[in-house]
């Protein structure tokens, strides 16, 4: 599923990494526990989280995650954007809850990591 389609489905806006909006992802993983994210051994997935801080972006970087969806209308800080830009990570912001985002994307065909 293209990132632009994900944005459309979750009423999301791209905060940084606009050049990656036409890239595709096949899987998603939803978590606010970054220790759980570090255990994922899958490629080509989008991280769905409500944790909006620099540590979440650093965790994505360490886990080779190229796409993040920040839910619950959380504010994406300038520091997060700076780290994401340095690491070539696209961040989408959605007003929807993590549960709603996950449900919508699953219904539309995005696969769970496990």
Structural description of this entry:
- The protein is α/β, with parallel strands linked by helices and 114 residues long.
- The protein has a single domain (3-112), classed as Udp-n-acetylmuramoylalanyl-d-glutamate--2,6- Diaminopimelate Ligase, Chain: A, domain 1 (3-Layer(aba) Sandwich).
- The chain contains five helices and six strands, in the order H-E-E-H-E-H-E-H-E-H-E.
- Strands 1-5-4-3-2-6 form a six-stranded mixed β-sheet.
- Helix 3 (54-62) runs parallel beside helix 4 (78-86).
- The longest helix has 10 residues, at 98-107.
- The relative contact order is 0.26.
- The model has no long low-confidence stretch (mean pLDDT 96).
How is this structure best summarized?
By secondary structure, this protein is α/β, with parallel strands linked by helices. It has five helices and six strands; from the N terminus they run αββαβαβαβαβ.
- Indicate the low-confidence ranges by residue numbers: none
Strand content: 15-25%
Radius of gyration using CA atoms only: 12 Å
Architecture, according to CATH? Answer: 3-Layer(aba) Sandwich
Compute the number of structural domains. Answer: 1
Summarize the main sheet.
Answer: 6 strands, mixed
Instruction: Examine the coordinates and then state which fold CATH places here, giving the name of the CATH topology.
Output: Udp-n-acetylmuramoylalanyl-d-glutamate--2,6- Diaminopimelate Ligase, Chain: A, domain 1
Shape by Cα distribution: globular
Provide the structure class: alpha/beta
CATH class: Alpha Beta
Counting DSSP H or I runs of 4 or more residues, the number of helices is 5
Q: Mean pLDDT, rounded to whole units?
A: 96
**What's the number of extended β-strand segments?**
6
Question: What is the fourth-level CATH superfamily?
Answer: HprK N-terminal domain-like
Trace the largest sheet across and list its strands. Answer: 1-5-4-3-2-6
What distance lies between the first and last C-alpha atoms, to the nearest angstrom? Answer: 18 Å
The proportion of residues forming helix, as a percent range, comes to: 25-40%
The helix/strand order is: HEEHEHEHEHE
